[in-house]
Amino acid sequence: MTVPPLILASASPARAAMLRGAGLTFEIDPADVDERALRDHLVADGASISDIAGALAEFKAATVARRHPDALVIGADQLLVLGHEIFEKSSSTRSARETLQRLRGKTHELVSAVALVQGDNLLWAHTDEARLTMRAFSDAYLEDYLERDDSGLTESVGAYRLEGPGAQLFERIEGDYFTVLGLPLLPLLDVLRQAGVLQP
Prior knowledge:
The chain has one domain (6-194): Alpha-Beta Complex (Maf protein), CATH 3.90.950. It is built from 7 helices and 7 strands. It has helices spanning 13-21, 35-44, 49-65, 93-103, 139-148, 177-181, 185-194, and strands at residues 6-8, 27-28, 72-82, 85-86, 107-118, 121-134, 170-174.
């Protein structure tokens, strides 16, 4: 049995690191799609946060699968939600500060979705959610954090990385660690074993 190539349809360093750490061999071909337009359309239609994340993950995978019809393509998406508001990635230290000030002392949700597509077929999809409560950190700590972790401020939607100094921002985390990082890894590995990509 010939194992099809595996492609990650994401430019996320965290997702690539997770897959490499799990021992997977894969290529990277970012989908480069207009996520905002699709997300806004789904929001206007009243879709749930879980459905929006799932649709975005599938759309990314399907876009790349059209370029590589024989490959197994992994698409992923993550949304940060506070109340009914979906947050955007920070574009600067200033906007990261504003995001963290709004999240401080509150509980937000991270909804992470993954989809596996081959050719025109959605083979599998999964969505998971984690709840994260930030502690009421001081303004002095916030400024110190912004100086120390500047490389991660614009890479993640919440302007934090749990695998770095961002762990100090929190008092409680409920949910899967990999889901927080942006990819429900364990269910994906199980499906890849079933597909013959990994040994059972």
